[in-house]
Amino acid sequence: MGRYDEYIKATWGLSANAGQRVINFISVYWSINPMQSFVAEERPPSRNGLPMPLPKEQQQQMRQLISSMLVPARELSWIKKDARQLNWIAFRINGLFPIKQFGTIEKIIGKDKIIAQIDACSLEKEIKIKNLKVMHDAWKNTQAEDKIMNRLKGNDEKLKCQLVMEWIKKKKPNLLPNKALNNANDVILHFDRIEFVEIDKKSCMNSIMGAYNKKVSRSKKQGEKQCCISLPLKTLDQLNRMVENEKSSQAELIKNLIEKEWVVRSRRPDLYG
């Protein structure tokens, strides 16, 4: 336990086994509120160098404050020590749990900082629980939508991400990132910082994949030229039956037949020398 934690426990008369969450809450709440009603006159340090506890009445006030502001731990159980999730929450937390900027407090970072802000927010406990449910549902939606975003992964991933950049520039220029999105994870993390109302991920990905498929199709058709031929009905029927049996297209089947016939005929130098 750090010296700062010992100071908090000594000041507020907390027991030795007081949880870190309570200590973090007091630290944050103390930093953003004058707490004049809690601050007593200068108190001499005890023998171990720590301050003497505040009067019992003020300690009781703090215990009541803790009881009224901290939501049950089960409401926070979905928040993990996961960098992506914590960044996602940090981007949205001020909208649901507004709080004065409390800066940097010793060792209150990551998940602990998120929970400390929720605890120290002045909203009523019932509203905090409701807002946590809203945030949790939104996070589950984000995870479900990862399946949509995963369509970017695999073949030509960088090309697909370039198409995402082009789509954003055309459709939502205000959401254009400061740097290039080079892979699917870059895109996913960028979209994590965008509110759901701004972009329909499914619609976006359908548009991106449509553009990608067209680009691939055009690339495959380089060096080709369209031609139109007329065939007797009997021959056309035979062609269609061959196409169905071989699960091919008319163009692909005709190309293969011509290439095979060319191999045979090219052996006659008198005709194809």
Structural class: mainly alpha
Number of helices: 12
How would you spell out the order of helices and strands? HHHHHHHHHHHH
- Beta fraction: under 5%
**Cα radius of gyration in angstroms:** 33 Å
Distance between the termini: 91 Å
* Average predicted confidence as pLDDT: 83
What number of structural domains do the residues give? 3
Helix content: 55-70%
Uncertain spans? none
The count of DSSP E runs of length 2 or more, i.e. the number of strands, is: 0
Shape: rod-shaped
Largest sheet: none
What labels describe this entry?
273 residues, 12 helices, mainly alpha, 3 domains, single chain
Can you offer a commentary on this structure?
Helix content is 60%, strand content 0%. It has 273 residues and is mainly α. It has three domains: 3-143, no CATH class; 153-220; 233-268. The model has no long low-confidence stretch (mean pLDDT 83). The N and C termini lie far apart (91 Å). It has twelve helices and no strands.
Short description:
With 273 residues, the protein is mostly helical. The chain is built from 12 helices and no strands.
Question: What is this structure's SSE topology?
Answer:
Elements: H1 3-12, H2 20-32, H3 56-69, H4 83-96, H5 110-120, H6 125-149, H7 157-171, H8 184-192, H9 201-220, H10 233-246, H11 250-265, H12 269-272
Helix pairs in contact: 2-5, 4-5, 4-6, 7-9
